[in-house]
Design goal:
The protein is α/β, with parallel strands linked by helices and 230 residues long. The chain is built from seven helices and six strands. It has one domain. Helix content is 42%, strand content 15%.
């Protein structure tokens, strides 16, 4: 099974580089953990009970709004981790359920410009999704944004530049940090029981955000460090 997944992952990677050679623009920065803004007071939730078919690889590649090399690599790194049986995918409910939610999240991500200590932020109203076939329940926020000025894309190089925080134990603007950030966001979407999520909302608390990052890193650090070196 592991050999099959490795072949699958390498096939995806070659697809990335083929797309990049066709003119994908390079990224300008990087970021870190992820203050999540919950729904504003008075917002609503929509629920759907329809089955959500899994998109094909070609459909996913075409649907990614962010197409720069850093984001594309981070996307496939997360797919590689969640596709395998390991402590990280187990934490998110197993490969099938985790990939169903992550693929929905990754396709809707856009870029924004915010403070240097913000990595990825989700905000606005959210819809609660229910898949009758998989039994998966999760939410999707109206906005999911990667901060161009944060640790997903940037690190401090010159003394005059503002500091950019680490993501857990990983330096900013690294492959490991980007992977951990995306996994952090995934934890905010998966429902454990009605109204309770795998990771509590960060809100505007840096302490809560850092604690959530530590929780994800505890389960996923080994898988992140084992990513193939390309």
């Amino acid at each position: 099974m592991r050999a099959w997944r490795n072949v699958y992952y390498l096939t995806l990677v070659f697809g990335i580089f083929a797309a990049l050679l066709q003119g994908t623009a390079s990224g300008q920065s990087q970021n870190f953990s992820a203050p999540l803004s919950g729904p504003p007071e008075g917002s609503f939730k929509l629920e759907t009970e329809k089955s959500l078919p899994q998109p094909t690889f070609a459909e996913l590649k075409s649907r990614l709004t962010i197409k720069d090399p850093s984001y594309t690599e981070a996307y496939f790194d997360v797919v590689s981790i969640l596709s395998d049986e390991n402590s990280c995918s187990d934490f998110f409910g197993g490969p099938d359920k985790a990939l169903e939610v992550f693929n929905q999240l990754a396709a809707m991500m856009t870029k924004t410009y915010s403070r240097q200590n913000v990595g990825i932020q989700m905000s606005g109203d959210y819809m609660t999704m229910s898949n009758q076939i998989s039994g998966n329940r999760y939410r999707l926020f109206r906005k999911a944004e990667v901060n161009v000025l944060g640790p997903f894309y940037r690190q401090k190089i010159f003394e005059t530049e503002p500091s950019v925080p680490h993501v857990g134990s990983f330096p900013p603007n690294t492959r490991e940090a980007r992977t951990l950030m995306l996994l952090h966001e995934l934890g905010h979407l998966i429902e454990l029981r009605r109204g309770q999520w795998l990771l509590p909302d960060d809100g505007h608390s840096e302490e809560q955000s850092e604690e959530n990052t530590r929780i994800v890193e505890k389960h996923c650090a080994k898988a992140i460090m084992a990513l193939p070196k390309i």
